[in-house]
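A.,

Following up on our hallway conversation. Structure tokens first:
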């Protein structure tokens, strides 16, 4: 029999249903077998002492020293093997090797007793004969206890005892010896069967143990996960409760009306500010339809059709203005912001409606516009007369003027003209924002208009020592725009570029076509636009806070007006850093018609 396979193999029939790791199971078997080694060694020495006493005679006395030498050698080897196993740090990683060594030690022990029985078996049946048989039977039975965890190892041990002894007894002529030989074989088979059953019990017990241990580990892991999930759930619940409390406090203490409505616009809750603005108590409005309670039925927005579209779209709405009726019949203008609350399935649960009373704000804006318009008209008429008079004086139509007086009147004329330009710009913005500004669109030859703008602004550029030029010959292109207002935009861009370009530099104007749009660009060589100022460069009265800006002057309205005019003509205006320094302003207009493909 191959010792490796006999000692280390696992009989599948011996461990049915076992799901434990075979390597771990083998390591535990080896651990148990080695655990019996100290007692087994002590038992072997005890049996050897008893055998010496029982077999002492002339024949045994001659072989006793040699026999005891073999006993002590095997006992020492088994003790050393046990000590080596206990000192090993990797015994669990290589249990097969330790099982093989244990099988060899079991074979050596069994061989010792087997040949003891064969060597000292008497030629005739007497008391010594019976004693020796009982002694070997006890040694074999002790192996059941020592090697119960491995029937292959027990088979090696018991077979080494039984085979020599059985052979000697079978060779004896008397009947009792033959019967004893048969009985030894029978006992040997029974011992193997018993150890086999014990090994099955070992596997079953170990399987249950491992299953229980794995189940305990899984339970502990699940318990840990459950505790973590419970902690996360409690934390999320606290966060949700805190968020809900914050939202409730925000709604309760908000200075503007806040309503919560369902998908049918029925009011579910409202804050104190809503009661103040609309004059209804919460008891009067909760449960009623919000739209039918405060918004007239003929309103163009916030009616039943508008609300149906909102519920279908489930998208936030902001800046919705509508005329509302208070409880006392007074009409107010409110600006609504409506936020839908949608669940994971995409269903609208409710909506938060915020309303802001803008009646006073609109009245203030109207008064301000009327005041600005009236003041500008009242200032422009006398200012035009002043400018005309100063121009007559400066032109010499009224006779020669002294040099000092002429310088003063020129300064007065320039500043009066600046004031008139400012008034005109204010009037233009007021008209555009109030909707009273009209664009007269026509087909305009853009190349001619660009050349005209350069001619009109050349004298202005000369004051700053700046040259105006075309980057390339512009293509002959027609655009649909207001000619006078487009010329005003180009004048604003060119004059700004001339003001902020260093003396001796040049301003380049170019025309190009990109993606069915016409692009007119104006490049300067100025210091560029700071990052802080870029976000508000097209705002009204926006000027960079720098010494150069204060020196060059300006109202801060030119770019704001240019942006409004270009957008009225379905165009866009923007700027970018110019390669090599400076800034490029550009306007984009829809391409309506191209007269010729070649530059003209």
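Then the amino acids I'd put at each of the 600 positions:
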């Amino acid at each position: 029999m191959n010792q490796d396979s006999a000692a280390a193999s696992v009989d599948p029939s011996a461990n049915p249903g076992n799901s434990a790791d075979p390597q771990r199971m083998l390591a535990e078997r080896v651990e148990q077998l080695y655990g019996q080694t100290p007692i087994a060694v002590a038992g072997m020495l005890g049996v050897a002492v008893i055998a010496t006493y029982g077999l002492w005679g002339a024949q045994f006395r001659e072989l006793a020293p040699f026999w005891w030498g073999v006993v002590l050698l095997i006992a020492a080897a088994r003790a050393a093997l046990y000590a080596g196993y206990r000192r090993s740090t990797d015994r669990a990683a290589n249990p097969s090797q330790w099982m093989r060594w244990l099988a060899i030690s079991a074979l050596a022990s069994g061989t010792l007793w087997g040949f003891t029985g064969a060597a000292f078996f008497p030629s005739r049946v007497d008391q010594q004969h019976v004693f020796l048989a009982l002694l070997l039977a006890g040694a074999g039975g002790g192996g059941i206890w020592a090697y119960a965890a491995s029937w292959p190892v027990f088979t090696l041990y018991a077979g080494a005892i039984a085979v020599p002894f059985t052979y000697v007894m079978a060779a004896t002529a008397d009947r009792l010896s033959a019967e004893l030989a048969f009985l030894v074989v029978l006992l040997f088979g029974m011992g193997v069967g018993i150890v086999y059953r014990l090994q099955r019990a070992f596997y079953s017990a170990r399987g249950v143990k491992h299953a229980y241990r794995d189940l305990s580990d899984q339970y502990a892991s699940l318990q840990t996960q459950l505790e973590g999930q419970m902690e996360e759930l409690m934390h999320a619940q606290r966060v949700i409760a805190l968020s809900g409390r914050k939202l409730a406090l925000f709604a309760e203490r908000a200075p503007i009306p806040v309503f919560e409505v369902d998908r049918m616009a029925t009011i579910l809750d409202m804050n104190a500010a809503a009661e103040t603005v609309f004059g209804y108590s919460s008891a009067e409005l909760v449960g009623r339809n919000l739209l039918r309670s405060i918004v007239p039925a003929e309103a163009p927005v916030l009616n039943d059709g508008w609300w149906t579209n909102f519920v279908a779209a489930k998208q936030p709405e902001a800046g919705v203005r509508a005329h509302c009726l208070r409880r006392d019949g007074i009409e107010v203008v409110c600006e609504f912001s409506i936020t839908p609350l949608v669940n994971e399935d995409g269903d609208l649960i409710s909506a938060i409606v915020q309303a802001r009373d803008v009646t006073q704000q609109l009245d203030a804006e109207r008064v301000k516009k009327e005041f600005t318009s009236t003041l500008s008209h009242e200032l422009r008429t006398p200012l035009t007369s002043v400018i005309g008079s100063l121009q007559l004086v400066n032109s010499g139509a009224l006779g020669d003027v002294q040099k000092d007086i002429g310088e003063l009147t020129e300064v007065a004329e320039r500043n009066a003209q600046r004031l008139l330009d400012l008034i005109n710009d204010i009037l233009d913005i007021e008209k555009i924002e109030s909707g009273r500004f009209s664009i007269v669109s026509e087909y305009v030859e853009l190349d001619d208009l660009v050349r005209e703008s350069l001619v009109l602004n050349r004298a202005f550029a000369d004051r700053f020592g700046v040259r105006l030029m075309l980057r390339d010959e512009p293509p002959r292109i027609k655009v649909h725009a207001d000619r006078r207002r487009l010329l005003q935009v180009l004048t604003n861009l060119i004059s700004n570029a001339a003001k902020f370009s260093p003396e001796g530099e040049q301003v380049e104007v170019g025309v190009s076509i990109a993606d069915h749009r016409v692009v007119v660009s104006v490049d300067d060589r100025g210091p560029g636009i700071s990052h802080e100022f870029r976000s508000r460069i097209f705002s009204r009265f926006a000027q960079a806070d720098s010494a150069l800006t204060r020196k060059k002057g300006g109202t801060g309205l030119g770019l704001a007006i240019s942006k409004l005019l270009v957008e009225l003509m379905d165009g866009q205006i923007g700027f970018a850093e110019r390669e090599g320094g400076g800034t490029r302003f550009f306007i984009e207009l829809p391409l309506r018609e191209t007269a010729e493909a070649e530059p003209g």
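DSSP finds 19 helices and 13 strands in the chain. Curious whether your intuition agrees with the design.

B.
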